Amino acid sequence: MTNTKGQNVYNAKSINVLKGLEAVRKRPAMYIGDVGTRGLHHLVNEVVDNSIDEALVGFADSIEITIHNDETVSVQDNGRGIPVDIHPEEKRSALEVVMTVLHAGGKFDKNSYKVSGGLHGVGVSVVNALSEWLKVEVKRDGKIYFQEYKRGVPVKLVKEIGTVKKNETGTKVTFKPDEEIFKTIKFKFDTLAERMRELAYLNKNITIKIKDERNGGEEETFHFKGGLIEFVKYLDETRSPLHKTVYIEGERDNTPIEIAFQYSEDYQENIFSYVNNINTHEGGTHLVGFKTALTRTLNNYATKNGLIKDGKIQLTGDDFREGLTAVISVKVAEPQFEGQTKTKLGNSETKSAVETLVGEKLAEHLEENPAIGKKIIEKCMRAAEAREAARKARDLSRRKNALDNMNLPGKLADCSITDPEHCEIYIVEGDSAGGSAKQGRDRRFQAILPLKGKILNVEKAKLNKILENNEIKAIISAIGAGLGTDFDHLKARYGKIILMTDADVDGSHIRTLLLTFLYRHMKDLITAGKVYIAQPPLYKVKKGKQEHYAFDEKERDDIIKRLKGNGKDTSHEKSEELTEDGHPKGLVISRYKGLGEMNPEQLWETTMNPETRTVLQVAIESAAAADKIFETLMGDAVEPRKEFIEKHAKYANLDI
To answer: Distance from the CA of 283 to the CA of which of 133, 374, 451, 524 falls in 20 to 30 A?
Structure first.
């Protein structure tokens, strides 16, 4: 191509080299995922991971996290303390190197740490880079050392500020997230506490204390001597277990392995896998090894003991996992992660290590506890019978090819574009709202599926019953990617699945039922970031020809203040009654009681137009926590649900 006058020159001077931690501040999402709430809490997890690594090698057993009133956080442990002597190559304190240089730390030296929890070795230096300020105190060799940083840059050299007993060691990091980087710096106690609880279960020798100095000083202390056994009991708290928890611990090929599992009367499979304390959402070789050993060992046991009668259905891996709750934790010296989110273990040797250990230990356990073996096989046989009953219904959910619309539900208003990446489907509560949505949508890329009433609560139902529900069948057919173990989110006909329900109690219930179904049977849609919740406005504020929409009370009040009008509040009236007069005087405020009250143009403008709408992406911060919440809210046990509602009632915004 011929150069033209005034064109930008591209040469060596055009290449920018970002020094130190500048790259982190330039592209923070590359290091912590995002700059929203999730990324904010990830900062704390990165610092805590350093303390956990000290515990993994036996040098720490106490970690304290404190959220201060000014939204700063402190993480303190009783480990060895970060070294402070001069680094031979960097010619400065090792503490400063660790805090300011990417990929610097003891995790790369297997003499210091056999295993570590960090994925990329960037940890605390990234936290430093994304903090307005950070202070670190190190207790080591009978002295206290201190250094402060401003946005990752040391304010002064490391200095000695006091003395302690010779055996008193540890590190304390205090930081304030940078408001120039993050959308919010307000920490959620429950989010951090759930991760700390998980870490305490996975590391039974550690005591983790988390304290919130804001709003009355909420506080939790986590220490579980039973480790994974207690973790499984916690997960199955609202379920009816069939037997005592089976616990397997050992080491194969220099890989420490710890597993706990039990079966319940439930119908869901709940397996949570961890590598070096990292939740491997996408599974990997350790999970494959466990499933393979479980299926083979149980099958052999059932055959050997005559528990599978002639003429019965052949048991499959799915049957052996129905109602199973399991936690798998392995410690791998050099973990190789793959997958979109880098949470899928790829080490081939780990599969054989887990498979061998589980095969040996489980066979021994079943021989020593025949009553448990019999209960498990009976449960698996019931699962097989239900699977066979659901087979024909399941076949209906499969889509033959991308152009075959034969099985699509009649009430689905499909879009004209066939490329899933550019298509979205609104699952809408009610025919009235569905009608408005169909009229207001962009037919090229937006599909509408109205639902009639509330769908079945899948938390309490077997698969064959689930597939008898007409509304669920419509959802399965519309999405077109199968169901359960046959589900493949890559085959979904839409890139976005948007749930649109009324902003009232019934709407919230329907949305919860839909999320429960998607989480239990189409979970990969959520982990792939394809599920969203529409945010229709709650209020319309009108003055003359001006119309403004508000999504909550604060936004409504801000609009009223901005318009500076003294009008009447007609929030008890329907919005249609407010549009009869084309030129009303003063301010008119209407409260939308449902989606059906909006005309197609209003629904498009406020809730469906990609240029102006707000949608919330559904994400899973912790799979174990998500499973626990769904089981608590949608399961059979009443008391845990009552306790959950009482604890979280203050956060609810119910339209009653």
So the answer is: 374
Give the global pTM. 0.73
Structure-model confidence comparison of residues 87 and 401, the more confident one? 87
Helix (H) / strand (E) containing 634: helix 623-634
Q: Which CATH number fits domain 22-222: 3.40.50.300, 2.60.220.30, 3.30.565.10, 3.90.190.20?
A: 3.30.565.10
The answer to whether 282 and 339 are in contact (CB under 8 A) is yes
* Count of alpha carbons within 13 angstroms of residue 32, beta-carbon side: 32
pLDDT digits (tens, 9 = 90+) for 394-408: 555 444 333 344 467
| Sign (positive or negative) of CA dihedral 98, 102, 104, 107 | positive
Just list the catalytic residues: 429, 502, 504, 506
Domain spanning 228-394: CATH 3.40.50.1780: no
pLDDT at 18: 46
CB 550 within 8 A of CB 539: yes
Q: Where are the beta strands (DSSP E) in 40-154?
A: 62-67, 73-77, 131-140, 143-150, 153-154
Q: What is the reported pLDDT for 595? A: 83
Nearest CA-CA partner of 530 in 639, 619, 651: 619
> Domain coordinates of the chain in residue numbers?
22-222, 228-394, 402-535+617-651
